[in-house]
Amino acid sequence: MDNKNTVTLINNSTGEKFEFNLIECTRGPKAIDFGKLFETTGIFSYDPGYASTAGCKSTVSYIDGQNGILLYRGIPIQDLVEKYSFTDICSLLISGKLPKDDKESKEFELDLRQLRYLNEGLIDIFKAFPDNAHPMANLSSAVGALSTFYRGYIEIGDDDDYEMMAKRMIAKIPTLVAFSYRHSIGYPYIYPDVSLSYVENFLLMLRAFPGGKLKYTLDGEVQIDPLEVEALDKIFTLHAEHGQNASTTTVRNVASTGVHPYAAISAGINALWGPSHGGANEKVLDQLAEIGNVKNVNKFIQRVKDKNDPFRLMGFGHRVYKNYDPRAKVLKKLKDDLAKKGIKINDRFSDIAEKVEEVALTDDYFIERKLYPNVDFYSGIILSALKIPVSLFTPIFAIGRMPGWCAHVIEHIKSGARITRPRQVYEGK
Questions:
Q1: What is the structure's pLDDT at 302?
Q2: Are 208 and 200 in contact (CB under 8 A)?
Q3: Within this chain, do residues 33 and 149 fall inside the same structural domain, yes or no?
């Protein structure tokens, strides 16, 4: 290394030396600029899963996995989830700043209220889907189709257009999720209500039935507990953004081709669907049911440690976090707060989860491997308590992640980055 701002690569076979610049990050480790590695040396790097590769420069969020830190635009997630609504977080991620006062916050949220309606032609598309289709399949198709109704976003002119593109997507995604779900179970659609807040309107569209001027459930007039609204708002905020995860990277990769932004987001929805990504909280509930009783926890912990047993503990460990996921801490407290305030939590699942955490965090196997609860460990328990159907767990994640995806699409397009084109290590004939 010749100086602190460069790194020297030495080819031991030939003795050749190549120098590469170091990029100083505002937070976190430095990065080696290997953008011209192949051009300079005739070789390229091999990094399966891109664990040590940065594919972009970004100001949207920052994760310190060693210390369990997550920042949105430089602000700790714990502060944001306690002090601001999800729609304020949307404003932060899209524009780079929080609303300066209550008036500005309400104006942003009012824009979303007015944009939450769907073109009737788009609604007709749902009729083509089988009744038993998974809501994520319906959702990705509907978002892709949304690009046909707003073709102008293929070429965006200025910041106002970028913001409107994002607002429109953020506003419509709860309606698309609700319609996708209701179609999948054969129920009539409930249209958005402009008088309701973002979360309350979404819950109404999920639960209500048409009935004159009022909307009813099978049990009577629709009742939405303010605690439910507050809890789901927090869950959306906790899922709003998380760096270069699989779905966000997919969104950026697809956006790099110059495609319509909504087509890129549709691709992100498909990436999110997988059980190793957005579908993990559903698997956590399945596993808690499999464990069945607090008395069985130690037996299952032993199974995790048996290298010959394929059993994996869902909701523990993270590709980035080698400490307690800060989102999991917020969700654990949220679960306990909801129980204290009268929201019915599945006590059996809650007790099993807390026992699993207690045993795991004192076990050398987990400590040595830095396996801690992640965001999925408690979120399924909370969503069930909010009467969210299990098939909607991943679409709920998609609603929350939408402002992050939109922010990355905007950042990527504005940066003028080249089309994504990784190399491969060829091992064929």
A1: 93
A2: no
A3: no
* Residue 318 designated active-site: yes
Q: In 3D, which of 49, 51, 82, 75 has the Cα closest to residue 61?
A: 75
Write the single-letter amino acid at 330: V
Confidence at residue 1, expressed as pLDDT on a 0 to 100 scale: 39
The answer, yes or no, to whether residue 4 has pLDDT greater than 90, is no
Distance CA 292, CA 311 (A): 15
Asked whether the beta carbons of 60 and 240 are under 8 A apart, the reply is no
Q: How far apart are the first and last CA of the chain?
A: 38
Domain of residue 373: give its range: 280-385
Reply yes or no on whether 376 is catalytic.
yes
Same domain, 180 and 82: yes
Q: Using CA atoms, how far apart are residues 33 and 19, in angstroms rounded to an integer? A: 10
Instruction: Report if residue 347 sits inside a domain.
Output: yes
Cβ atoms of residues 47 and 53 within 8 Å: yes
Any idea what the CATH number is for the domain that residue 135 is in? 1.10.580.10
Burial of 155 (0-12, 13-18, 19+ CB in 10 A): exposed
Check whether 305 has a pLDDT greater than 60.
Answer: yes
Count the neighbouring beta carbons within 10 Å of the beta carbon of residue 22: 16
pLDDT in tens, 408-428: 999 999 998 899 999 899 999
Q: What is the CB neighbour count within 10 angstroms for residue 223?
A: 9
Domain for residue 176, yes or no? yes
Residue 251 has pLDDT above 70, yes or no: yes
pTM value surpassing 0.85: yes
Q: 31-32 and 61-64: which strand pairing? A: unpaired
User: Which residue among 88, 233, 325, 376 is the active-site one?
Assistant: 376
Same domain, 161 and 227: yes
211 — pLDDT class (breaks 50, 70, 90) = low
Contacts for 38-42: CB closer than 8 Å, 24+ residues apart: 38/423, 41/9, 41/11, 41/16
Is there a single domain that holds both residue 194 and residue 332?
A: no
Other beta carbons less than 10 A from residue 117's beta carbon: 14
CB environment 352-361: b (16+ within 10 A), e (fewer) = bbbbbbeebe
- What CATH number should be reported for the domain holding residue 327? 1.10.230.10
Residue in 318, 325, 408, 412 annotated catalytic = 318
The CA distance from 149 to 75, in Å, is 35
